[in-house]
Design brief:
Structural class: alpha/beta
Number of strands: 8
Bound molecules: BIS(adenosine)-5'-pentaphosphate
Order of helices and strands: EHEHHHEHEHEEEHHEH
Distance between the termini: 9 Å
Shape: globular
Length: 212
Amino acid sequence: MRIVLVGPPGVGKGTQAKRLAEKLKVPHVSTGEILREAVREGTPLGSKARETMERGDLVPDSIVDEILRGKLRSKACENGFVLDGYPRNLEQARTLDGFLGESGRRLKRVIDLEAPDAVIIERLSGRRSCRECQANYHVKFLPPARDGRCDQCRGELIQRTDDRPETIRQRLKVYVEQTQALVELYEEQGLLRRVAADRSVEEIGQEILASL
Ligand code: AP5
């Protein structure tokens, strides 16, 4: 099962992609997570991407395409994947089709998660992540048992550098200008299902499963 999740920053793609990947027993591939890990580890890839991510802009296609190619060729993705954060523009969508086409594969479904801006901003500004294991929390919707500490590893909970108000505004602008066009593209291809994301994690997850 080859699935792509699209939708604005903070709408809940990562939350749903992780659950769905576990249910379907395929890898969850998040280009944002891979880039953040490279930044944390200070690799050459991380140094190239860090400033762009902190500004809320898109990392150059050449960099993310390379990451994706490696992932899609891996044995782990042989039976499918849940892609979260890629493609991010029309060029990346063409690249994805090309990569899959090389081995006679095609996308099965694209899920578009949608929610009003106010919901998105509340989700992003309240998100906290564990510095050690990167587990995600939310100060209101998914609070940890102990303030500021991860339930799983007791690591410190921090705010992502791109979840500051000025960067959130830029990320939303970039989404409208560069990513939203994908919704129309995949609708024309008959792959798209729209799922209202202004609901509980459980309800959204059930609708996604039903739409596959
Ligand atoms: P990326 O990591 O992909 O960020 P994003 O698309 O902006 O999405 P987020 O991770 O911020 O949010 P999400 O939709 O996954 O929401 P989440 O589930 O966490 O990319 C980061 C950056 O990397 C980009 O800006 C860019 O620079 C670069 N990049 C990545 N891919 C790229 C590409 N292909 N090309 C170029 N550059 C690229 O949920 C958010 C919060 O809400 C959490 O706290 C969660 O607990 C809570 N929540 C989730 N669902 C619910 C719910 N139903 N009810 C209540 N709370 C909820």
